[in-house]
Every structure is written in structure tokens, then in C-alpha cells.
Amino acid sequence: MHTDSTVDIGLVLPDLLGTYGDVGNATVLHKRLVWRGFAARVVPVAFGEPVPDSCDVYVIGGGEDSAQTLAVRHLRAHPGLQRAAARGAVILGVCAGLQILGESFTGADTVEHAGLGLLDLTSTPGGRRAIGEVLVQPDAVLAGAGEAPLAGLGEAAITGFENHQGRTRLGPSARPLGRVLAGTGNGDGTEGAVQGRIIATYLHGPVLPRNPHLADLLIEWVVGERPGPLELTVVGQLRDERLRACQRAASGSGQRASGASAARPQRGVSS
Ligand SMILES: NC(=O)CC[C@H](N)C(=O)O
Q1: Which PANTHER family match (predicted)?
Q2: Confidence (pLDDT) at 197
Q3: What is the domain-level CATH number for residue 203?
């Protein structure tokens, strides 16, 4: 159980990394904590400010290549996030955030930029921009032989919206968040990355309002116990609507990812 009185949610560089409402991920964590009776606050960290290492959980969103390059320079110059990760802080990275948390990324400038080295992954530009709805089957269901399922995430599908040029290759220390059933994700049939208490994904939406089970997994890691259920009709409606849109994309178009997952049966896809 978390012992401090207040859960601090670090909102990392929302002025640079906040495309598609990604800052809403911090709002969702805050609300879902407060509704369960936890004291919580969002701690925005603006460009130019030092990065505190004291937060319990950090969210870092997406952005265009130029903003992403500025952001990584800032985060390397003020390594509070890296110190927090070393003591086990929970981190959610989205799109540019995913790439920044990795070992390196190459953007439109064709320069390889060093990342923060918190995730064993590298990102390089793909052939065409990946844009559209994404449907992901969590590895909790489709863990490979010898792989332990990602405890706490359950079988429910993850949905989101992607818009990125980068493709990401995971190293042996990271595992994917799931398998792509519609969309592109990492570009090899997998989506996102999990390593220790860090989860990263290409999914905007933002991802946490659309996937409350993912929000609650992060909260479980932060507070040290499984949070109780929240019955929120509007959240269920949003989830159902976005799942239907993703399933249409999965069954219809040429949006499917290249890679093994596209051929996998859609067993266990649930909300
Ligand atoms: N949406 C994003 O965060 C984009 C990330 C990165 N600039 C890319 O295009 O791959």
C-alpha cells in the first residue's frame, strides 16, 4: 500500500508532448484515484523547468518530431524522470513518449537521437505514416510460450488512435503490451512495450479514458492494491463505441498490421 498521503501524478512537458489530448491521461489517473478515496494531484512539468523525481507516476504524451527532439534534450539535461524510474516510479509513455523512453529514435531529420534508456527499444521511420484506429489484444491473453501473462491487465482489448511515422523494435528486456489486430502499432504485429513498471504505447485517444482497465493497472502498481470497481456509464459507452469502430477497421480494411498478428484468430477479444 502506498504510504504517502497524496499520489503525485507527474505530467511531463504537456506544452511539448500533448497531441490528441494525451494530457487527459493524467486527468483520468487523478479522477480514478480520487473517486476511490485516494488523495491525488497532477504535477505539470513545463519545458524549461527541472523535472521532479518525487512523483509516484508519470505520464508523457505524443508530439511532432521537432517537439520530441526538444523534449528529449530537456529530459536528458534534467534527469528527474530517470531517477524516479530507478526507484520504481510508474510511467506511461505515449507515441513520442514511447520513443523518448527508449534507447534511441530517428525522426524526419534522419538524425539518431539518444533516448532516456528506460525501455529496451529503438524507433526508426517506417515507409508510410501509420494513421487510424488500432485494436490490440493484450499479451495477458496471447503471451507466447514461456512468457508470463501481464498480470492485472485481463483479457479486455485495448483501443486507440495512432498517427506516427516511427516503427519500433523491442529488445529482449522489453515485452509488447499486446498484439495488433487492426492498425500498425510497433510495425511488426506487436504494440507498445512493458518493462518493469513502465508501460508505453502508440495509442492516443487519449488511451486511458478509452481503456479504464489500463488506467487501473497503473493505479494498482502505484497504490499497491487492486482498485475496486467504478461503475461509470459514460466510460462504458465510450469504450463500446470505440471498440465497435476498431472492430470495423479490423474486419474491413487494409489497415491490418503487417506481421504475425494479422493472421491470428481474434480469440478473446472483449471489452
Ligand atoms: N504522434 C506522435 O507522438 C508522433 C511521434 C513521432 N514524432 C512519429 O511520428 O513517429
Answers
A1: DETHIOBIOTIN SYNTHETASE (PTHR21343), LIPID II ISOGLUTAMINYL SYNTHASE (GLUTAMINE-HYDROLYZING) SUBUNIT GATD (PTHR21343:SF9)
A2: 94
A3: 3.40.50.880
